Amino acid sequence: MINGGIPLKGTVEISGAKNSAVAILPAALLADTPSTIDNLPEINDIELLSKMIEYLGGKTIKKEHEIIIDPEGINSFCPPHELASQMRASYYLIGALLSRFNEAAIAMPGGCNIGVRPIDQHIKGFEALGAKTTIEHGIIKVKADKLVGNHIYFDVVSVGATINLMLAACKAEGTTILENCAKEPHVVDVANFLNAMGANIKGAGTDMIKIVGVDKLHGCKHTVIPDQIEAGTYMVAAAATHGDVTIKGIIPKHLESIIAKMSEMGVIIEEYDEDLKVTTAGRLKRVDIKTQPYPGFPTDMQQLMAVLLALADGVSMITENVYEGRFKYLDELKKMGVNAKVEGRTAVIEGVEKITGAPLKATDLRAGAAMIIAGLAANGVTEVKNIYHIDRGYEAIEKKLQKLGADIKRVK
Ligand code: UD1
User: Whose CA is nearest to atom 20 of ligand 1?
Assistant: First the structure.
C-alpha cells in the first residue's frame, strides 16, 4: 500500500546484482572446494537457488549478504522441477551440472512472463560442445560422453547463453571460442569469479570470449558487483517524486546509458566514484528510448522509465527490441491515468501532469517495481498486488523506500 505524493529524500544503499548472483551460485558448483560469495542480494531467487543446491547434495551456509557454498557432496544432476520452473536463471544449473557430470535434467526455466524466451542458443552451444539434448514433458535433458571445446557463434546476443556456455566450457577439453556474446557487467562478473576459481577465460565484456578448458576448479572468495537495475530503479523513483536521493555503492560506468537518458530528460545527476545524487528542477522532458543489449539501454529499465515518461512534458516513444511482450504493464498503469498506447514493439506515451493512485497487479518483476514508483509519484493511495514478483529480485524494497521517507507498507 502506497500513499503517494511524497518526494523521496536521503540515501539508499544498492545491493549486489541479482543477475550476477543467480549465475555465480551455480558457477560455484564447478569447484571441488567451498566458495564464499558476499554482497549477495537478499532476494527470493537466491533462496530458491540455495534450496536447489542443497537438494542436489551441496552444503550452503547463509549469513546476511553472504553465502558459503560447499559443492563437494553434489550427487545429483536433477534439480527439483517445482523449484527450477519458478525462476529463469535455473538454466545456469544446466551449464554447471553438465560440466560437473556431463549430464543435467531440469524443468524448463520460468521467470518473468515478458514474451517468448527460448533457450535455443544455450542448447545450440551445449550441442556444439558434444552434448545431446531432448525436451520431454517440460524437462530438458542434456547429456554428453565428454565435453570438447568448439567455436560457437550466437545468432542472438543472449546474456543467459553467453554465461551458460562459459560455465559448460570451463572444464571442457581444449579451447572454446564464443562469438556475438553479451557484454553485460554480470557476464564479466561471472567470468572473474570463474577465473578466480582457476578457469582460463579471456575477453568477457567483448563480443568474443575465449575459454581454455582446465581440469579442476577450486573454491574462492568473491564479491558480487552492485545491481545496475536496482540503482536505476531508485534513480527513477527519486526523479519521479522530484526528490533528492543519493544512491550509494554503485559502479557509475555500468549506469552510463541510464544516466545519459535521464539527463536528456532534465534529471540532474551528480556522479561520484561510487555514488550518484539524483534531483530534479521542474517538469521532465520527453525522450525516445530504444532498448538494446549492453551497453545499450537495458530492457530491464524500460518499464521503470515509462513511469517518468508518463509524467514528462510531451510525447515519448519506447521501442522494445529485446522482448516483444514487455508492454503488458501499461494496461495496469493506465488505471492511474497514464496515457499510453502500444503498437507492435513500440509504446507511445503522452505525458500527463499528474497520475492518481489505483489498485494494480504486478505483472512481472520490473513492472512491479514500476508500479510502486508510479504509486509513489501519484496522488492518493495505490495498492500493488502480486508482489512476489518484486521480491524475486529486489531486496527489502519497501524498507529502502521507507528510509527515503516514502509512505509504503507491506500488507499481508
Ligand atoms: C537476462 C536477464 C533479464 C534481462 C535479459 C536481457 C537474467 C537471469 N535475466 O535474461 O533480466 O531482461 O537478460 O538483458 O540474467 N534469446 C533467444 N534464444 C536464446 C536465448 C535468448 O532467442 O537461447 C533471445 C530472448 O528471447 C531475448 C534475447 O535473446 O529476445 C535476449 O535474451 P537473454 O539475454 O538470453 O535474456 P535472459 O537470459 O532470458
Answer: 119
CA 276 to chain centre: 20
Strands 200-202 and 151-153: unpaired
Q: What is the DSSP letter of 408?
A: E
DSSP 72: T
Average pLDDT (67-77) is: 96
**137: confidence class by pLDDT, cuts 50, 70, 90:** confident
Assess contact for 392 and 49: CB atoms under 8 A: no
Where residue 110 falls among pLDDT bands split at 50, 70, 90? low
Q: Give yes or no for a contact between 345 and 384, defined as CB atoms under 8 angstroms apart.
A: no
Q: How far apart are CA 279 and CA 92, in angstroms?
A: 39
Is 9 exposed, middle or buried, given 0-12, 13-18 or 19+ CB atoms closer than 10 A?
A: middle
CA 159 to ligand 1 centroid distance, Å: 6
How do residues 6-17 score in pLDDT, each as one tens digit?
999 999 999 999
pLDDT at 24: 98
What is the rounded CA–CA span in Å between residue 163 and residue 147? 16
112 as an active site residue: the answer is yes
What interhelical angle do 299-310 and 256-264 show, nearest 10? 20
The 10 Å Cβ neighbour count of residue 270 is 10
Q: Is the pLDDT of residue 114 over 60?
A: no
Ligand 1 nearest-atom number relative to CA 119: 23
Contact 313, 284 (CB under 8 A): yes
CA of 181 to the centre of ligand 1 (A): 12
DSSP 292: -
Residue found under cell 525516445:
288
Cα(72)–Cα(87) distance, integer angstroms: 25
CA of 158 to the centre of ligand 1 (A): 5
C-alpha cell at 279: 534531483
Q: Which three cell numbers stand for residue 27?
A: 558457477
Measure CA of the first residue to CA of the last residue in the chain; give whole Å. 10
Residues 276, 277, 283, 285: what is their CA dihedral angle, to the nearest 10 degrees?
-20
Q: How far apart are CA 294 and CA 110, in angstroms?
A: 23
∠ CA 229-45-234, rounded to 5°: 25
Distance CA 372, CA 406 (A): 11
Q: What pLDDT was estimated at residue 254?
A: 97
